[in-house]
Specification:
Elements: E1 2-6, H1 11-20, E2 27-32, E3 44-47, H2 53-63, E4 67-70, H3 79-100, E5 105-109, H4 135-155, E6 158-164, E7 166-168, H5 177-186, E8 191-194, E9 200-201, E10 203-205, H6 206-219, E11 225-228, E12 234-235, H7 236-247, E13 252-255, E14 267-268, H8 273-279, H9 288-302
Parallel strand pairs: 1-2, 1-4, 2-3, 4-5, 5-6, 6-11, 7-10, 8-13, 9-14
Antiparallel strand pairs: 9-12
Helix pairs in contact: 1-6, 2-3, 3-4, 5-7, 5-9, 7-9
């Protein structure tokens, strides 16, 4: 079985690739525009721009995958570029699959940002909540979701969409709250600069996310959307307290205005009941302290601070 993973240099891709390699007979192909620091979790890697029609078409033709996991995307930066990568990249991948691997099962990784603002009384948010994303990232991921569903309707492509909540685990980039905080603490900073600490968010361990992705690929209904979440929420201030405890470091928090988001949403968490019904398993219960402790040990070791 050949599996193609886009966004191979990203946070989740390595975790997903390592899990696939545990499956007998699975050959894992990785694709990314950037070179990989460590390609050991992939059997084959191709450097490719997914927004280039000819390049991604040749990759799909060569890999001939039976499963495709589309993780590639851009979360920060210029709005035009975000839309180009997230929307056109998805469209061109889907077209390549339609032409060269029409029987493949395809997982498109969307985002909980597609929902936008949701009144607290309507949370946890289910997949049937009408999307009203704000900003380039959320709107571009929603456009990619619509494209995926369109390919299912028009061409019967076996494509499923997942919307993960806030993922935690080894390799979490510094652009995200926990990744940023851990690296500042590991660097020995006595004052760490953060944005707002009052928002409450739904966090899930990357190991649970990977298992959900595999489950949806195997059992998911084509054209359907599945939340991948814990169904619980924590205040960001809780993460600060836990990281202080597991690190054993003393630090104070100062407000970094550059990290303060306009129109910050105070509460956002999601229902995973649809996924649970599909897989026949109870919801993933992320032990936040255990997850952050493992992340701390890794970040600390990488910084040479342990």
């Amino acid at each position: 079985m050949n599996v193609l993973i886009t966004g191979a240099a990203g946070f989740c891709a390595g975790h997903l690739a390592r899990r696939f390699k545990q499956i007998t007979g699975c050959v894992v192909w990785g694709v990314d525009k950037s070179a990989l620091k460590d390609s050991s979790c992939f059997d084959k890697f191709i450097q490719c721009d997914i927004t280039n029609t000819a390049e991604i078409s040749e990759v799909v033709r060569t890999a001939n995958p039976s499963k495709v996991c589309h993780l590639a995307g851009l979360a920060r930066g210029d709005d035009t570029l975000i839309h180009h990568v997230n929307v056109q990249g998805c469209n061109r991948l889907l077209e390549a699959v339609r032409i060269h691997a029409p029987s493949a099962r395809v997982l498109v990784v969307g985002s909980s940002a597609e929902y936008g603002r949701v009144p607290e009384e309507n949370q946890p948010v289910g997949e049937d909540w009408p999307c009203a994303p704000e900003g380039a990232y959320g709107s571009s991921k929603y456009a990619a979701t619509l494209a995926a569903q369109d390919y299912n309707r028009r061409y019967s492509l076996k494509v499923m969409i997942v919307r993960p909540s806030n993922i935690l685990g080894h390799g979490l980039p510094e652009i995200y709250f926990a990744g940023n905080l851990l690296r500042q603490v590991a660097a020995g900073q006595e004052e760490v600069g953060l944005g707002n600490l009052y928002p409450k968010r739904d966090f899930i361990d990357v190991a649970d996310v990977v298992e959900a992705y595999l489950g949806v690929l195997d059992k998911g209904v084509a054209g359907e959307i599945y939340n991948v979440s814990s169904g619980r929420y924590y205040e960001l201030a809780n993460l600060v307290e836990i990281i202080g405890s597991v690190s054993g470091r003393k630090f104070s928090v100062v407000r970094n205005q550059a990290l303060v988001r306009d129109r910050e949403v105070s509460l956002l968490y999601f229902s995973s009941k649809k996924l649970e019904a599909l897989l026949g398993t109870p919801p993933a219960v992320t032990d936040l302290r255990s997850t952050l402790e493992k992340m701390w040990r890794t970040v600390c070791a990488e910084a040479g601070a342990c």
